[in-house]
Amino acid sequence: MSEIDARGLPCPQPVIKTKKALEEIESGQVTVLVNSPESCENVRRFAQSQGFKVVVREEAGAFYLEITKEVTPQANLGEGGQVVLITSDQLGVGDERLGEILMKAFLNTLWDYEPKPAKLLFINNGVRLTTEGSEVLETLELLEKKGVQVFSCGTCLEYYNLREKLRVGLVSNMYATVDALLQATKVIKI
Amino acid sequence: MMLIAGTIPIRDLPLVTGGVKGDGDNLVIDGYPIPCTQGTGAMISAALATTDYLKLDPPQAVVAGDIGDGEGSRQIYEYLIQNVARLTPGVLALHYCLPDMALMRRLCQAVRECRPRPLMISDAGSMYAAKAAGLANEFAAFTPDMAELAFLADGEATHPAYINRHLFCADIGRVPGLIIAAYRQRSAARLLLVKGATDYIARYGDILATITEPRVPELEAIGGTGDTITGLLAAFVSGGLELHEAAIIAARVNRTAGKMARVTVATRVGQIIAQFPAVFREYLCAWSGTCLIKGGSYHE
Questions:
Q1: Do A19 and B190 touch (CB under 8 A)?
Q2: Number of domains in chain B
Q3: Residue where a domain terminates, one of A35, A70, A105
Q4: In which domain, by residue range, is B248 found?
Q5: Residues A139 and A157 in one domain
Q6: DSSP strand pairing (B119-122 vs A28-34)
Q7: CATH number of residue B210's parent domain
């Protein structure tokens, strides 16, 4: 359990500190201490808007907000969750460099978006995104840290001679790919 | 901790490092008065005003005098290369240093070895060096004006003075195209905040926001008003805002402070920075998008 003392901090600091603390834990409790009704209300509404339970108690002019984070909404989306199947290192058809820029923007936006998908499956040319030289390795690592599973097609890595250059996620086979697609709540093909 | 580095156009100013304090119209770093008229000084002043308001630790700074011979710039680069791993700033914001590609490569190598890795923001000369050395993707944000964006978009130019293809195309309507071109050349940081009559915030080539209000055209004629945006951005990121949110708010704060200061072309940048606390008090809560009420009334 972590505690944040946000007494005296101006808006939006109490909410930002609360948000950061909640992002750092998978589940558990964060207690936030503030000393103004406005800050108390802002933190309470923020936490509730994210689906967390909040208990507020007032003691000697200070407000203690006990925020409980349970399993992420993504885990409740069904057995397989949402799966994004990425079949190319570019997004859309047209200029190659524009396609690369769009794919980069897509993955970075995915990192910002909630809830995140359960799995990213990279097949065919898509495995170039998970291997050495890719411009999105950092983003994929951040997604992994947020609980998104990253899989690259083993056959594709072999075909492109990239197996030794895999830098993020795990190698999958076709059985695991089919299983992920058929167990998914929703599949989005890119 | 936020670390800001850049040169100051004072002939005999040695390499100065340490925490920043305000003293009237000046900044004080390790006992040395630094004017906040423009450039690095304006950027640090804007960051200090922001950290003061947010009750964050004041910025740390590394500055040196440089009147164009590059000596102060080299001292700053060498200091950072030797010390960045020890200092491990959360945010490293670079302003004007002579664009030296070899030193920039060594600095980026030193930053790569930091754990945790600092988030790098760059403006002016350090941005030119990063682009020319092919290191733009090491940076979280660049904050160019339109002419500098044209430089980023020109794959062959190694300095804004040598812009080729885009020199005569840099009108406001071309900014979205130049942004795409800069990303296509791999000359842009992850986020671009393009400062001008319209401020553009783009991430990985995707324009997230354009800021046009309030319209204060006089701001463009006042030295240092672009530098303040970079200082605001660095401070907001250091305070925990997401990079793109910080960029949008930084652009809004600068414009609104200009309006509140009723700027004319004779206004000094310090008079605009002096309005920051009032802007923060009035708007920051709502603009941050994280707070739902302020003073008992509900925001959208």
A1: no
A2: 1
A3: A70
A4: 2-298
A5: yes
A6: unpaired
A7: 3.40.1190.20
- Give the pLDDT of chain B (300 residues) as one tens digit per residue: 999 999 999 988 999 999 999 888 789 999 999 988 888 999 999 999 999 999 999 999 999 999 888 999 999 999 999 999 999 999 999 999 988 899 999 999 999 999 899 999 999 888 999 998 999 989 999 999 988 998 898 877 766 665 555 555 556 668 888 998 898 888 999 999 999 989 999 988 888 889 998 988 888 887 788 899 999 999 999 998 989 999 999 999 999 999 999 988 888 888 999 999 999 988 888 888 766 654 433 333
d(CA B56, nearest CA chain A) in Å: 9
Report the residue from A13, A104, A108 with minimal CB separation from B54.
Answer: A13
- Residues B272 and B263 sit within 8 Å (Cβ to Cβ): yes
Q: Do A85 and A63 belong to one domain?
A: no
What amino acid occupies position B118? P
Identify any residues that bridge with A34 across adjacent strands, giving them in sequence order.
A63
Which residues in chain B have Cβ-Cβ distances shorter than 8 Å to A135?
A: 137
- B204 interaction partners in chain A (CB closer than 8 Å): 101, 104-105, 108
d(C-alpha B189, C-alpha A128), whole Å: 21
Q: What tokens does B276 get?
A: 């920051």
Residue A65 sits in which domain range? 2-70
Beta bridge partners of B230: none
CATH number at residue A180: 3.40.1260.10
Residues of A in contact with B242 (CB under 8 A): 112
CATH label of the domain that carries residue A64: 3.30.110.40
> Is-contact A84 A185, C-beta < 8 A?
no
- Contact yes or no for A45 and B293 at CB 8 A: yes
